[in-house]
Fold this sequence. Notes:
alpha/beta; Alpha-Beta Plaits; four-stranded parallel β-sheet; 16 helices; elongated
Amino acid sequence: MSTNFLSTPLIKVKVEVFYHSCPHNVSSGFYSCDPEEIASKLKGMKAVVIVGKYDEEHLKLYKEAALRAGINPLLVRVVDSSWGEKALEENKKILENGWVADLALVEEKGLPLSRRELIRGEIKTVKDRIDKPVWISDMCKLYRACTLCQDSCPYNAIKVDKKSGVSIDYTKCTACGLCVSSCPMSAIQFPSVSQQAIFELSKIKGNKIISCYKDKGNSIKLPCIAMLSAVDLALLRSSGEVELRCPGCELSKNLESLKRIVTDLNEAVGGISLITPEDKIEKKEAKVVTISSFSYLANKAEAMQEIIKQNNLPDITYDAFVNMKIHALCGKCAKWCPTSALTIEYTDSGEKLSFNPDKCIGCKICINVCPEGDNGCSSGNKAIKLVPAKKVSHEKKDLMKDEIVRCKVCGAIVGSRKSLNLVKKIMKERGLECDDEWLERCPTHRAEYSFQKFFGMKAKFRPRRGPNEVGGV
């Protein structure tokens, strides 16, 4: 995993502010609705908040001006001049953390011809950017086991390949944001609003209204509010009450998961409402949400742990069980768990698999990687099962214990008794010889035993060394 994204805070993008006035919006600032003239003022900027008029006509104008100026349009945000300083601060915060914008898919497009270009016969093409989720491979170490993004997509636009990673079919993608919400590692993000931007917005004190770009009112604009996870909402709620607005479009049918999250969080901490054209979830009395101040959170899995440590949030509490008949304590579930909710612990006499509900985020990766049981990733026939907790519990529990087997020669841990019995069973099913003397040794002394069994027990075993080691061949 790349440390560029995860170990240190990301470099902030320099954001500038451009004030625009026109006959529809008489105030101070640059006075012109000519996209070429506005573009001449924007040239050289990396990211800019335009304080002007937020309506369809002017949004189209500002985008054309940004494209003519060579600015990535996903690094341009518009604030209506009537919205005030807080709206300006929020939008600057989003752009400061807009490092994902340059990862967006590039699309060549032609611009409307100005009178001057028409006379000269000039045809100008520019590089537009598509605001649909992107997969950031450096932030995803789980694609060999995790299919959450693929499972969350109702449009079959995402495929996870254990070798190549995640691919997104943009001809099918509707930018609904469900994959963004589902990813525990923040490896899928919208180019226009990064996960880090959501984290940083939660530090701004005060109540927040959050909607999408189709909403013409004063609100924090996202591609779709369905991109918000329980972690995002809990963080945003920690600095004030939150009102979510959906103006209504074909994507509003994807809000069922968000509605459940809002309902559950309202039961726990209150102060959250969701308004859609169809219904309204009224906010309940707000309680204090305690979240330690943070300088940088790498991903939602890490943020989840911070929240659970200090708040009782039932919507993100899970319980785990194992099938004792087929579970072999192989340790794969603990190895792949992104939050260390599952751990293998050793003592002098035994080995145990433990589960910490305060760290579990319900990603089901443990089920995906489990080699025991059938191939259905959420089937009850797997050796491990994960379900939403019926009753909130913060107590760590042992799922399974077993005897530790140590190497008969050097004493190194070989594995649990159940895991070795499984190895023995598989080898016999494949017609391979497997006696206990060989099985209960570490890899080096298994090789020694096999060598001596073939050449005689008095034969001297000399492990072959690598070419860079002394005595190597």
